[in-house]
Fold this protein.
Amino acid sequence: MLKDRPYIGRFAPSPTGSLHLGSLCTALVSFIEARTQLGLWLLRIDDLDTTRNIKGSVDNILNTLSTFGLHWDHKEQYQSHYIKDYEEILFELTRNQHTYACTCNRKSLLAKQPCLCRNTLKTQEPSSLRIKINPSLISFQDQLQGLRSFQLTHQDDDFLLKRRDGIIAYQFAVVIDDNRQQVTDIVRGVDLLDSTPRQIYLQQLLGLSTPNYMHLPIIIDQDGNKLSKQNHATAVDLKQPQIVIFKLLSLLKQNPPKEIYIAPVKEQLEWAIDNWNPLPLKNLSCICNND
């Protein structure tokens, strides 16, 4: 884990729509963590999956963050500007026999049919690119979820680095991006916890530093569903940002005083930074939004 480098955090949304309460919550905590550590907070647009990108989403994201007073340091970066970098590293991984071509389709993998591509010869068929996992125990100390250990095996955990359609996979790109931006600390939802050992495996394979991780409890509705685009979560209200900020601080168990309920966003954020305490969120997997 990184301990001596200055704090550099990041928020990395995909341009697939407007920010909802759950995604804004992650941005807020990531921002507060960076400011309490007197560090930098970076913004990266994870736009590699062009099949899901929605026109106008980037402008919506930038406008939403600014409306809520979450101002990032340095100019925002876009994954799509670094495709050449990803390809060069993939070439090296393949040259060193750390990858293999996979012709399995999504349907067969979802049906849990075994992938036999690892030990086959090169193919001319359209294929994706997978990492060859060496059986490994990956352990890390999460700042909220405690010590976590995952046993990676080659049969189950050879994950995609590049999709059949040529799109660089998230699991690979995020590792390269975080290293390029010298990110030291990552705040994200606990629903992404299972992705972390795969990313740490890649970091170790490539000789990169492993950031510190904080996996937040996800926000769920009254029916127990995660607030997400897939579940049609509504965009946050830009007309009354101070009420939304107060609500999030309450959901995050920060007990904000009533005096800042309709205070300017800048004042609310100053209070949140001065009084930030993540301990009430320790070991929680979800928090319920009763609205």
User: Anything to note?
Assistant: The two ends are 38 Å apart (CA to CA).
